[in-house]
Amino acid sequence: MDKILTCKDLNRSYSIGKTTLEVLKGVSLEVTTGETLSIMGESGSGKSTLLHVLGGLDSPKEGSVHFNNQSIYGMYTARRAKFRAENVGFVFQSFHLLSELDIVENVALPAMAKRSKGDAKTRARELLDQVGLSDRVGHRPQELSGGEQQRVAMARALMNEPDIIFCDEPTGNLDSKTGEKVLNYLFQLVEARRHTLVLVTHSQEVASRCSRELFLKDGRLV
What we know:
Blueprint: E1 3-16, E2 19-32, E3 36-40, H1 47-54, E4 62-67, E5 70-71, H2 77-87, E6 88-91, H3 103-108, H4 117-130, H5 146-157, E7 164-168, H6 176-193, E8 196-201, H7 204-207, E9 212-217, E10 220-221
Parallel strand pairs: 3-8, 3-9, 6-7, 7-8
Antiparallel strand pairs: 1-2, 1-4, 4-5, 9-10
Helix pairs in contact: 4-5, 5-6
């Protein structure tokens, strides 16, 4: 099958005072269109940094990332932002929902620039129905449980029908029962739409839901 995402020899470091912290050390991988990939690792292993670099959120110090044979970091900043909006969906551990907006508005937000307001909200309601939240559409995030908020975040990630979805510890803030429910919705949606999924986690149970598993240790894939 075709490769949707490839990275080669990724290095990423951060300066903390006079100290340089090497986070990614020569990471290379390929992601096949339509596959579900988990990247496991302990806290501090570089999982989130790798995900952010793959998704165009954080530039590597060295190395390359290509999406459908296009160099992400060969793009100008504005073009890269447009690429993310059109091709990538993100689900974060801490939800990142806007408290001043109701959940329909939160889900519709990524599409407001591409669709009319009415069309965007119609699709947002459809997505919320597909994650079991049709009875909560008039609510704001702070009125929902953690699991419900994460399902809103999942719906938002799917709003622009992205080619690839990145999930950063999507069940990290949830208890096991709630986390399992969220994962069930996530994998049902990914399978139905044939999205490519890259998920980072410290949980073997979560990782095993994916078709392929990798392990990141001390900044290297092992």
